[in-house]
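Researcher: Next entry in the queue.
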Amino acid sequence: MTTEAKSPVRWGILSTANIATKVARAIHFAENADLVAVASRTEERAATWAQEHNIPTAYGTYDALLADESLDAIYIPLPPSLHAEWTIKAAEHGKHVLCEKPLAANTDEAIAMADACRQNGVQLMDGVMWVHHERTTAMKKKLGDGTLGRLRRVTAAFTFNWDTIPVGNIRAMKEFAGGSLGDLGYYCVRAILWAFEELPTQVFATARYKVGVDFNLAGILWFSDERIATLDCGFDTGLRKWFEVAGTRASIVCDDFTVPTSEDTARFWVHGPDGNEQNTVDGGIQEVKMIETFSQIVQSGNLETQWSEVAVDTMRVCDALLESDRRKEIVKL
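Model: Structure for this entry, 333 residues:
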């Protein structure tokens, strides 16, 4: 008895933004995906980028890419302010959507995106890569097998430093829904939700603004069962990309959770009363795993709504944190 091999998922990339280079490489590496088309705002830019990244078809408009009936899935690395418009259009064309994070400019847009994908029978996932790494699976096992005891606290940080704010960078542009929380803190919020597996009951945040966007932000999140989490993110502190999940017996520390230092291995530590144990996980490139996971869902025909649900929940928390800073008070969810 033989099993018929499923055809690779045919991908298109909608925009030639910088992060698209990383994802294009991942699609090429993925065993169940083919990168067949890219679109930019001009035919010249699209053709040049397609040649540089070994892509056979280039389109000079985003609409032309979506009209390509041969494509199964679209990766959208546009600025956050454009995510809702083009995700909804892609869904209406029957395309599965991998959308760069943050999922949207706000929660209302995120919900509209999830609704559109559900109504059109297509998968929606945000581009948070670290959750797909084998290390994340190994850490999650420690959270659930009693190693840490009862979970009490999560602490997460993601920062880097700009000595001079770069002109034209969408991270620092209000009109594109820029800001440190959406760009960096989104990862921290996801780590907290990943560990505690539910929304917080209330949050508090304080932020400092420059050029119209939150340049740094620190937040506190309260959860049921007397659990608490804290996060900080910003464009004004040296590179930090770590989290700690602490329980009544021990804690897990990961010092490079957003992007492992090496593509060959990844590490984390368990800190307990008997000392520190380093754990090393062999394993693959996380963005390739993301593409393969997404493509497997498309091939199976069985949509996995948990991916859009956690992305929308991440937006809910981010919006609550920003609202708390504006109101200078605790916000309940």
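Model: The mean pLDDT is 96.
Researcher: Noted, moving on.
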